[in-house]
User: Fold these one by one.
Assistant:
Number 1:
Amino acid sequence: MNNRVFTVGSLISGRLIVKHPAPERTERKIIKAEGIIVEQNGKRMEIYPVKGKLLDAALSQGKPIQYKCRKGTCGQCTIKVVNAPGLSYPNEQEKKKLKNEITNGYRLACQAEIL
Ligand code: FES
Protein backbone atom coordinates (compact mmCIF):
# COMPACT_ATOMS: atom_id res chain seq x y z
CA MET A 1 0.00 0.00 0.00
CA ASN A 2 1.33 3.40 -0.91
CA ASN A 3 1.19 5.69 2.09
CA ARG A 4 2.58 8.81 0.55
CA VAL A 5 2.26 11.91 2.65
CA PHE A 6 1.90 15.17 0.84
CA THR A 7 3.39 18.24 2.37
CA VAL A 8 2.78 21.81 1.34
CA GLY A 9 6.08 21.74 -0.46
CA SER A 10 5.18 18.68 -2.43
CA LEU A 11 2.13 20.41 -3.83
CA ILE A 12 4.00 23.38 -5.25
CA SER A 13 3.59 23.53 -8.96
CA GLY A 14 6.18 21.55 -10.80
CA ARG A 15 6.88 19.03 -8.10
CA LEU A 16 3.74 17.07 -8.27
CA ILE A 17 1.47 16.78 -11.17
CA VAL A 18 -1.97 15.93 -10.13
CA LYS A 19 -4.09 14.85 -12.97
CA HIS A 20 -7.70 15.55 -12.61
CA PRO A 21 -10.05 13.83 -14.90
CA ALA A 22 -11.57 16.16 -17.42
CA PRO A 23 -14.88 17.37 -16.14
CA GLU A 24 -17.70 15.63 -17.80
CA ARG A 25 -19.54 17.78 -20.16
CA THR A 26 -22.98 18.28 -18.93
CA GLU A 27 -25.60 19.41 -21.27
CA ARG A 28 -27.60 22.27 -20.01
CA LYS A 29 -31.13 22.32 -21.07
CA ILE A 30 -32.59 25.73 -21.12
CA ILE A 31 -36.18 25.30 -20.27
CA LYS A 32 -37.96 28.30 -21.56
CA ALA A 33 -41.08 29.27 -19.74
CA GLU A 34 -44.00 28.62 -22.01
CA GLY A 35 -46.46 30.49 -19.93
CA ILE A 36 -49.43 32.34 -21.24
CA ILE A 37 -48.91 36.04 -20.73
CA VAL A 38 -51.98 38.20 -20.32
CA GLU A 39 -52.79 41.68 -19.14
CA GLN A 40 -55.83 42.96 -17.33
CA ASN A 41 -56.21 46.50 -16.01
CA GLY A 42 -52.57 47.22 -16.79
CA LYS A 43 -51.35 44.26 -14.76
CA ARG A 44 -49.33 41.61 -16.56
CA MET A 45 -49.62 38.01 -15.46
CA GLU A 46 -48.02 34.78 -16.57
CA ILE A 47 -50.18 31.70 -16.38
CA TYR A 48 -48.72 28.23 -16.51
CA PRO A 49 -50.66 26.35 -19.16
CA VAL A 50 -52.97 23.76 -17.67
CA LYS A 51 -55.57 22.17 -19.90
CA GLY A 52 -58.99 23.73 -19.43
CA LYS A 53 -60.41 27.22 -19.09
CA LEU A 54 -57.85 30.00 -18.94
CA LEU A 55 -59.70 31.65 -16.06
CA ASP A 56 -59.66 28.45 -13.99
CA ALA A 57 -55.94 27.99 -14.58
CA ALA A 58 -55.24 31.59 -13.62
CA LEU A 59 -57.31 31.48 -10.44
CA SER A 60 -55.82 28.15 -9.37
CA GLN A 61 -52.39 29.75 -9.69
CA GLY A 62 -53.35 32.76 -7.64
CA LYS A 63 -53.53 35.18 -10.56
CA PRO A 64 -56.03 37.90 -9.74
CA ILE A 65 -58.08 37.99 -12.94
CA GLN A 66 -61.36 39.80 -12.37
CA TYR A 67 -64.47 37.94 -13.42
CA LYS A 68 -68.16 37.73 -12.65
CA CYS A 69 -70.50 35.51 -14.66
CA ARG A 70 -68.18 32.85 -16.11
CA LYS A 71 -70.66 32.52 -18.96
CA GLY A 72 -69.17 34.94 -21.44
CA THR A 73 -71.83 37.61 -20.99
CA CYS A 74 -70.54 40.25 -18.51
CA GLY A 75 -67.11 40.92 -20.03
CA GLN A 76 -65.47 41.35 -16.62
CA CYS A 77 -62.84 38.74 -17.42
CA THR A 78 -61.64 40.49 -20.58
CA ILE A 79 -57.90 40.16 -20.91
CA LYS A 80 -55.36 41.14 -23.50
CA VAL A 81 -53.31 38.16 -24.55
CA VAL A 82 -49.66 39.04 -25.02
CA ASN A 83 -48.37 35.53 -25.66
CA ALA A 84 -50.52 32.47 -25.79
CA PRO A 85 -49.04 29.19 -26.90
CA GLY A 86 -51.76 26.58 -27.11
CA LEU A 87 -54.80 28.76 -26.65
CA SER A 88 -58.04 27.97 -28.46
CA TYR A 89 -59.52 30.17 -31.13
CA PRO A 90 -62.21 32.58 -29.88
CA ASN A 91 -65.60 30.92 -29.57
CA GLU A 92 -68.96 32.40 -30.59
CA GLN A 93 -69.56 33.91 -27.15
CA GLU A 94 -66.28 35.80 -27.31
CA LYS A 95 -66.91 36.98 -30.85
CA LYS A 96 -70.34 38.24 -29.81
CA LYS A 97 -69.08 40.05 -26.71
CA LEU A 98 -65.72 41.40 -27.87
CA LYS A 99 -66.48 42.00 -31.56
CA ASN A 100 -63.43 43.68 -33.19
CA GLU A 101 -61.39 43.66 -29.99
CA ILE A 102 -60.57 40.03 -30.72
CA THR A 103 -58.34 41.16 -33.57
CA ASN A 104 -56.42 43.32 -31.05
CA GLY A 105 -55.70 40.28 -28.91
CA TYR A 106 -58.51 40.53 -26.38
CA ARG A 107 -60.18 37.40 -25.04
CA LEU A 108 -62.62 36.36 -22.37
CA ALA A 109 -60.64 34.39 -19.80
CA CYS A 110 -63.75 32.40 -18.84
CA GLN A 111 -64.21 31.23 -22.43
CA ALA A 112 -60.66 30.82 -23.72
CA GLU A 113 -59.46 27.24 -23.51
CA ILE A 114 -55.93 26.09 -22.94
CA LEU A 115 -55.47 23.14 -25.28
S1 FES B 1 -66.71 36.22 -16.33
FE1 FES B 1 -68.29 37.22 -17.39
S2 FES B 1 -67.65 37.12 -19.44
FE2 FES B 1 -66.14 36.01 -18.38
Note: DSSP finds two helices and six strands in the chain.
Number 2:
Amino acid sequence: MKLSLYLGSYKNVKVFIHWTFSILLLWIIISNWRQGIPAADIGWTVLFVLLLFVCVVLHEFGHALAAQRYGIQTKDIILYPIGGVARLEKIPEDPKQELWVAIAGPLVNVFIFLVLSVVLTFTGFNLESLEELKINPSTILMYLASANLILAVFNLIPAFPMDGGRILRAFLAIRLPRAKATQIAGGIGQFLAIFFVFFGLFNNPILVLIGIFIFLGASAEVSHTQQQSFLKGYKVKDAIMMRFPILAFDAPLSKAVEKLLNSQATHFVIVKDDVAVGTLSRNQIIQGLKENDEMLPVEKVADFSPLKIETEQDLDEAWRVMMTKNKKVAFIIENGHFLGILDQENISEFVMVKSALSK
Ligand SMILES: [Zn+2]
Protein backbone atom coordinates (compact mmCIF):
# COMPACT_ATOMS: atom_id res chain seq x y z
CA MET A 1 0.00 0.00 0.00
CA LYS A 2 3.04 2.28 -0.17
CA LEU A 3 1.85 3.83 -3.41
CA SER A 4 -1.57 4.70 -2.04
CA LEU A 5 -2.79 7.33 0.37
CA TYR A 6 -5.02 6.21 3.24
CA LEU A 7 -8.25 8.22 3.30
CA GLY A 8 -10.18 6.64 6.16
CA SER A 9 -12.36 3.67 7.00
CA TYR A 10 -15.97 2.74 7.61
CA LYS A 11 -17.20 -0.55 9.12
CA ASN A 12 -13.66 -1.96 9.05
CA VAL A 13 -13.22 -1.26 5.33
CA LYS A 14 -10.20 0.96 4.65
CA VAL A 15 -10.24 3.34 1.69
CA PHE A 16 -7.04 4.17 -0.21
CA ILE A 17 -6.37 6.43 -3.18
CA HIS A 18 -3.66 5.40 -5.64
CA TRP A 19 -0.94 7.96 -6.43
CA THR A 20 -1.77 7.88 -10.17
CA PHE A 21 -4.99 9.66 -9.25
CA SER A 22 -3.00 12.89 -8.82
CA ILE A 23 -1.92 12.58 -12.48
CA LEU A 24 -5.59 12.56 -13.52
CA LEU A 25 -6.25 15.77 -11.57
CA LEU A 26 -3.07 17.42 -12.91
CA TRP A 27 -4.00 16.41 -16.45
CA ILE A 28 -7.47 17.96 -16.06
CA ILE A 29 -6.03 21.18 -14.66
CA ILE A 30 -3.24 21.54 -17.23
CA SER A 31 -5.30 20.61 -20.30
CA ASN A 32 -8.10 22.99 -19.26
CA TRP A 33 -5.66 25.76 -18.46
CA ARG A 34 -3.93 25.42 -21.85
CA GLN A 35 -7.30 25.91 -23.53
CA GLY A 36 -7.55 29.22 -21.72
CA ILE A 37 -10.41 28.18 -19.46
CA PRO A 38 -10.82 30.47 -16.41
CA ALA A 39 -9.56 29.17 -13.07
CA ALA A 40 -13.03 29.21 -11.48
CA ASP A 41 -14.39 26.88 -14.19
CA ILE A 42 -11.43 24.53 -13.81
CA GLY A 43 -12.18 24.49 -10.07
CA TRP A 44 -15.75 23.33 -10.77
CA THR A 45 -14.49 20.58 -13.08
CA VAL A 46 -12.05 19.35 -10.42
CA LEU A 47 -14.82 19.45 -7.81
CA PHE A 48 -17.02 17.43 -10.17
CA VAL A 49 -14.33 14.77 -10.62
CA LEU A 50 -13.84 14.55 -6.84
CA LEU A 51 -17.59 14.22 -6.24
CA LEU A 52 -17.77 11.58 -8.96
CA PHE A 53 -15.11 9.58 -7.17
CA VAL A 54 -17.06 9.92 -3.91
CA CYS A 55 -19.89 8.20 -5.82
CA VAL A 56 -17.42 5.51 -6.96
CA VAL A 57 -16.42 4.94 -3.31
CA LEU A 58 -20.11 4.62 -2.39
CA HIS A 59 -20.53 2.13 -5.25
CA GLU A 60 -17.66 0.02 -3.86
CA PHE A 61 -19.17 0.26 -0.37
CA GLY A 62 -22.34 -1.17 -1.91
CA HIS A 63 -20.36 -4.32 -2.77
CA ALA A 64 -18.44 -4.36 0.52
CA LEU A 65 -21.48 -3.98 2.80
CA ALA A 66 -23.52 -6.50 0.80
CA ALA A 67 -20.63 -8.96 1.20
CA GLN A 68 -20.47 -8.23 4.94
CA ARG A 69 -24.05 -9.42 5.24
CA TYR A 70 -22.79 -12.85 4.12
CA GLY A 71 -19.87 -12.75 6.52
CA ILE A 72 -17.29 -11.82 3.88
CA GLN A 73 -14.89 -9.04 4.83
CA THR A 74 -13.33 -6.53 2.44
CA LYS A 75 -9.59 -5.94 2.74
CA ASP A 76 -9.76 -2.45 1.30
CA ILE A 77 -11.13 -0.19 -1.40
CA ILE A 78 -8.56 1.36 -3.72
CA LEU A 79 -9.35 4.25 -6.04
CA TYR A 80 -7.60 4.32 -9.41
CA PRO A 81 -8.06 6.95 -12.13
CA ILE A 82 -10.16 4.47 -14.13
CA GLY A 83 -12.35 3.53 -11.16
CA GLY A 84 -12.46 1.83 -7.80
CA VAL A 85 -11.75 -1.72 -6.70
CA ALA A 86 -13.13 -3.32 -3.54
CA ARG A 87 -10.84 -6.21 -2.63
CA LEU A 88 -13.17 -8.76 -1.09
CA GLU A 89 -11.66 -11.58 0.97
CA LYS A 90 -13.41 -13.94 -1.39
CA ILE A 91 -16.29 -14.01 -3.83
CA PRO A 92 -19.36 -15.78 -2.44
CA GLU A 93 -19.82 -19.14 -4.14
CA ASP A 94 -23.56 -19.24 -3.65
CA PRO A 95 -24.93 -17.74 -6.92
CA LYS A 96 -27.67 -15.82 -5.09
CA GLN A 97 -25.15 -14.20 -2.75
CA GLU A 98 -22.81 -13.36 -5.63
CA LEU A 99 -25.75 -11.81 -7.45
CA TRP A 100 -26.56 -9.51 -4.53
CA VAL A 101 -22.95 -8.53 -3.92
CA ALA A 102 -22.44 -7.75 -7.63
CA ILE A 103 -25.66 -5.80 -8.11
CA ALA A 104 -25.33 -3.75 -4.89
CA GLY A 105 -22.67 -1.48 -6.46
CA PRO A 106 -24.67 -0.34 -9.52
CA LEU A 107 -27.79 -0.08 -7.32
CA VAL A 108 -26.01 2.57 -5.23
CA ASN A 109 -25.47 4.66 -8.38
CA VAL A 110 -29.09 4.22 -9.42
CA PHE A 111 -30.10 5.38 -5.94
CA ILE A 112 -27.85 8.48 -6.13
CA PHE A 113 -29.27 9.22 -9.58
CA LEU A 114 -32.84 9.05 -8.25
CA VAL A 115 -32.06 11.26 -5.23
CA LEU A 116 -30.33 13.87 -7.41
CA SER A 117 -33.21 13.71 -9.90
CA VAL A 118 -35.68 14.54 -7.14
CA VAL A 119 -33.49 17.44 -5.97
CA LEU A 120 -33.16 18.70 -9.55
CA THR A 121 -36.92 18.52 -10.05
CA PHE A 122 -37.33 20.96 -7.18
CA THR A 123 -34.41 23.25 -8.02
CA GLY A 124 -35.02 23.22 -11.76
CA PHE A 125 -32.63 22.18 -14.52
CA ASN A 126 -31.99 22.67 -18.21
CA LEU A 127 -31.07 19.52 -20.13
CA GLU A 128 -29.77 21.52 -23.09
CA SER A 129 -26.91 22.88 -21.02
CA LEU A 130 -25.50 19.31 -20.93
CA GLU A 131 -24.38 19.83 -24.51
CA GLU A 132 -22.14 22.78 -23.62
CA LEU A 133 -19.92 20.50 -21.53
CA LYS A 134 -19.46 23.27 -19.03
CA ILE A 135 -19.55 22.47 -15.35
CA ASN A 136 -20.63 25.32 -13.09
CA PRO A 137 -22.81 25.77 -9.99
CA SER A 138 -26.01 25.52 -12.02
CA THR A 139 -25.07 22.35 -13.94
CA ILE A 140 -22.89 20.33 -11.56
CA LEU A 141 -25.76 18.37 -9.96
CA MET A 142 -27.18 17.52 -13.37
CA TYR A 143 -23.77 16.27 -14.52
CA LEU A 144 -23.41 14.25 -11.36
CA ALA A 145 -26.86 12.69 -11.85
CA SER A 146 -26.05 11.72 -15.46
CA ALA A 147 -22.62 10.40 -14.49
CA ASN A 148 -24.21 8.11 -11.90
CA LEU A 149 -26.65 6.78 -14.46
CA ILE A 150 -23.75 6.15 -16.88
CA LEU A 151 -21.75 4.44 -14.10
CA ALA A 152 -24.64 2.12 -13.31
CA VAL A 153 -25.27 1.23 -16.97
CA PHE A 154 -21.55 0.86 -17.79
CA ASN A 155 -20.93 -1.47 -14.85
CA LEU A 156 -23.89 -3.61 -15.88
CA ILE A 157 -22.31 -4.44 -19.27
CA PRO A 158 -21.90 -8.23 -19.02
CA ALA A 159 -18.11 -8.12 -19.39
CA PHE A 160 -16.61 -10.34 -16.73
CA PRO A 161 -15.07 -9.39 -14.23
CA MET A 162 -17.15 -6.20 -14.26
CA ASP A 163 -20.32 -6.22 -12.15
CA GLY A 164 -22.54 -7.13 -15.11
CA GLY A 165 -20.28 -10.10 -15.89
CA ARG A 166 -20.53 -11.30 -12.28
CA ILE A 167 -24.30 -11.02 -12.41
CA LEU A 168 -24.26 -13.06 -15.62
CA ARG A 169 -22.00 -15.68 -14.03
CA ALA A 170 -24.28 -15.89 -11.01
CA PHE A 171 -27.32 -16.46 -13.24
CA LEU A 172 -25.49 -19.14 -15.23
CA ALA A 173 -24.21 -20.79 -12.04
CA ILE A 174 -27.76 -21.40 -10.83
CA ARG A 175 -28.03 -24.07 -13.57
CA LEU A 176 -24.41 -24.89 -14.49
CA PRO A 177 -21.32 -25.88 -12.53
CA ARG A 178 -19.47 -22.77 -11.34
CA ALA A 179 -16.33 -23.45 -13.42
CA LYS A 180 -18.40 -23.82 -16.59
CA ALA A 181 -20.42 -20.66 -15.80
CA THR A 182 -17.18 -18.75 -15.25
CA GLN A 183 -15.79 -20.02 -18.54
CA ILE A 184 -18.83 -18.80 -20.47
CA ALA A 185 -18.98 -15.41 -18.68
CA GLY A 186 -15.20 -15.05 -19.10
CA GLY A 187 -15.44 -15.76 -22.84
CA ILE A 188 -18.14 -13.14 -23.31
CA GLY A 189 -16.07 -10.71 -21.20
CA GLN A 190 -13.00 -11.20 -23.37
CA PHE A 191 -14.99 -10.77 -26.55
CA LEU A 192 -16.40 -7.47 -25.26
CA ALA A 193 -12.92 -6.45 -24.02
CA ILE A 194 -11.49 -6.79 -27.54
CA PHE A 195 -14.38 -4.69 -28.80
CA PHE A 196 -13.62 -2.03 -26.11
CA VAL A 197 -9.95 -1.88 -27.11
CA PHE A 198 -10.77 -1.61 -30.81
CA PHE A 199 -13.48 1.02 -30.31
CA GLY A 200 -11.34 2.88 -27.77
CA LEU A 201 -8.37 3.13 -30.14
CA PHE A 202 -10.43 5.42 -32.37
CA ASN A 203 -12.47 7.18 -29.72
CA ASN A 204 -11.33 7.10 -26.13
CA PRO A 205 -7.99 5.86 -24.73
CA ILE A 206 -9.57 5.17 -21.32
CA LEU A 207 -11.70 2.47 -22.99
CA VAL A 208 -8.51 0.79 -24.24
CA LEU A 209 -7.23 0.61 -20.66
CA ILE A 210 -10.54 -0.71 -19.38
CA GLY A 211 -10.60 -3.28 -22.22
CA ILE A 212 -7.13 -4.56 -21.29
CA PHE A 213 -8.12 -4.65 -17.62
CA ILE A 214 -11.23 -6.70 -18.43
CA PHE A 215 -9.35 -9.07 -20.74
CA LEU A 216 -6.67 -9.88 -18.17
CA GLY A 217 -9.17 -9.97 -15.31
CA ALA A 218 -11.40 -12.43 -17.17
CA SER A 219 -8.61 -14.90 -17.90
CA ALA A 220 -7.25 -14.67 -14.34
CA GLU A 221 -10.69 -15.34 -12.87
CA VAL A 222 -11.36 -18.26 -15.23
CA SER A 223 -8.11 -20.04 -14.31
CA HIS A 224 -8.61 -19.20 -10.63
CA THR A 225 -12.10 -20.73 -10.61
CA GLN A 226 -10.94 -23.78 -12.55
CA GLN A 227 -8.12 -24.31 -10.12
CA GLN A 228 -10.55 -24.02 -7.23
CA SER A 229 -13.02 -26.46 -8.79
CA PHE A 230 -10.29 -29.07 -9.26
CA LEU A 231 -9.35 -28.74 -5.59
CA LYS A 232 -12.94 -29.38 -4.49
CA GLY A 233 -13.44 -32.60 -2.62
CA TYR A 234 -9.80 -32.94 -1.57
CA LYS A 235 -8.30 -32.43 1.85
CA VAL A 236 -5.01 -30.80 2.75
CA LYS A 237 -3.58 -34.25 3.56
CA ASP A 238 -4.02 -35.23 -0.12
CA ALA A 239 -1.49 -32.65 -1.27
CA ILE A 240 0.85 -32.48 1.73
CA MET A 241 4.61 -32.55 1.14
CA MET A 242 6.42 -34.70 3.68
CA ARG A 243 9.84 -34.22 2.11
CA PHE A 244 11.19 -30.71 1.93
CA PRO A 245 14.54 -28.98 2.25
CA ILE A 246 15.46 -27.77 5.73
CA LEU A 247 17.97 -25.30 7.15
CA ALA A 248 19.18 -24.73 10.70
CA PHE A 249 18.12 -21.37 12.13
CA ASP A 250 21.74 -20.28 12.63
CA ALA A 251 23.03 -21.39 9.21
CA PRO A 252 24.53 -18.57 7.14
CA LEU A 253 22.75 -17.29 4.02
CA SER A 254 25.57 -18.80 1.94
CA LYS A 255 24.30 -22.25 2.94
CA ALA A 256 20.81 -21.32 1.71
CA VAL A 257 22.26 -20.02 -1.55
CA GLU A 258 24.19 -23.25 -2.05
CA LYS A 259 21.04 -25.34 -1.58
CA LEU A 260 19.03 -22.95 -3.75
CA LEU A 261 21.46 -23.33 -6.66
CA ASN A 262 22.01 -27.07 -6.26
CA SER A 263 18.38 -28.16 -6.17
CA GLN A 264 14.83 -27.44 -7.28
CA ALA A 265 14.02 -25.97 -3.89
CA THR A 266 12.67 -22.41 -3.83
CA HIS A 267 11.98 -22.28 -0.10
CA PHE A 268 13.10 -23.97 3.08
CA VAL A 269 11.77 -24.98 6.45
CA ILE A 270 13.80 -23.46 9.26
CA VAL A 271 14.48 -25.80 12.19
CA LYS A 272 15.66 -25.13 15.73
CA ASP A 273 16.34 -28.04 18.12
CA ASP A 274 14.71 -30.44 15.62
CA VAL A 275 11.51 -28.42 15.60
CA ALA A 276 10.17 -26.63 12.52
CA VAL A 277 9.90 -22.96 13.47
CA GLY A 278 9.70 -20.96 10.27
CA THR A 279 10.08 -20.70 6.51
CA LEU A 280 12.61 -19.04 4.24
CA SER A 281 11.71 -18.14 0.67
CA ARG A 282 13.92 -17.39 -2.32
CA ASN A 283 12.82 -13.74 -2.18
CA GLN A 284 13.83 -13.49 1.48
CA ILE A 285 17.25 -14.96 0.65
CA ILE A 286 17.76 -12.45 -2.18
CA GLN A 287 16.58 -9.60 0.04
CA GLY A 288 19.01 -10.66 2.77
CA LEU A 289 21.91 -10.78 0.31
CA LYS A 290 21.07 -7.32 -0.99
CA GLU A 291 20.96 -5.73 2.45
CA ASN A 292 23.72 -7.76 4.14
CA ASP A 293 26.30 -10.35 3.19
CA GLU A 294 26.17 -14.11 2.90
CA MET A 295 27.40 -14.71 6.45
CA LEU A 296 24.11 -13.36 7.87
CA PRO A 297 22.29 -16.13 9.82
CA VAL A 298 19.08 -17.18 8.03
CA GLU A 299 17.00 -16.43 11.16
CA LYS A 300 17.46 -12.72 10.46
CA VAL A 301 15.39 -12.89 7.26
CA ALA A 302 13.18 -15.97 7.75
CA ASP A 303 9.43 -15.85 8.44
CA PHE A 304 8.77 -17.06 11.98
CA SER A 305 5.00 -16.72 11.85
CA PRO A 306 4.16 -19.39 9.28
CA LEU A 307 0.56 -20.02 8.32
CA LYS A 308 -0.68 -23.18 10.06
CA ILE A 309 -3.28 -25.43 8.43
CA GLU A 310 -4.88 -28.62 9.73
CA THR A 311 -4.60 -31.84 7.66
CA GLU A 312 -8.37 -32.28 7.62
CA GLN A 313 -9.09 -28.84 6.17
CA ASP A 314 -10.55 -28.62 2.65
CA LEU A 315 -7.82 -28.09 0.07
CA ASP A 316 -9.63 -25.33 -1.82
CA GLU A 317 -10.14 -23.40 1.41
CA ALA A 318 -6.46 -23.84 2.37
CA TRP A 319 -5.39 -22.59 -1.04
CA ARG A 320 -7.68 -19.57 -0.75
CA VAL A 321 -6.28 -18.67 2.67
CA MET A 322 -2.70 -18.98 1.33
CA MET A 323 -3.56 -16.69 -1.58
CA THR A 324 -5.26 -14.03 0.58
CA LYS A 325 -2.52 -14.07 3.23
CA ASN A 326 0.08 -14.05 0.45
CA LYS A 327 1.93 -17.09 1.84
CA LYS A 328 3.76 -19.32 -0.61
CA VAL A 329 4.21 -22.03 2.04
CA ALA A 330 2.10 -23.22 4.96
CA PHE A 331 2.81 -25.58 7.87
CA ILE A 332 0.53 -28.59 8.02
CA ILE A 333 -0.48 -29.54 11.52
CA GLU A 334 -2.10 -32.71 12.85
CA ASN A 335 -3.10 -32.96 16.52
CA GLY A 336 -0.89 -29.98 17.27
CA HIS A 337 2.16 -31.57 15.63
CA PHE A 338 4.01 -30.40 12.56
CA LEU A 339 3.56 -32.96 9.80
CA GLY A 340 4.76 -31.37 6.58
CA ILE A 341 4.23 -28.39 4.32
CA LEU A 342 1.94 -27.23 1.56
CA ASP A 343 3.21 -24.86 -1.09
CA GLN A 344 1.44 -23.02 -3.87
CA GLU A 345 3.56 -24.58 -6.61
CA ASN A 346 2.85 -28.03 -5.27
CA ILE A 347 -0.90 -27.25 -5.29
CA SER A 348 -0.62 -26.10 -8.93
CA GLU A 349 1.08 -29.39 -9.79
CA PHE A 350 -1.67 -31.24 -7.97
CA VAL A 351 -4.24 -29.42 -10.13
CA MET A 352 -2.29 -30.18 -13.33
CA VAL A 353 -2.18 -33.88 -12.51
CA LYS A 354 -5.86 -34.01 -11.56
CA SER A 355 -6.97 -32.10 -14.65
CA ALA A 356 -4.85 -34.35 -16.90
CA LEU A 357 -6.45 -37.42 -15.32
CA SER A 358 -9.98 -36.04 -15.66
CA LYS A 359 -9.79 -35.84 -19.47
ZN1 LIG B 1 -18.89 -2.53 -8.99
Note: Residues 59, 63, 105, 155, 163 surround zinc ion (CB under 6 Å).
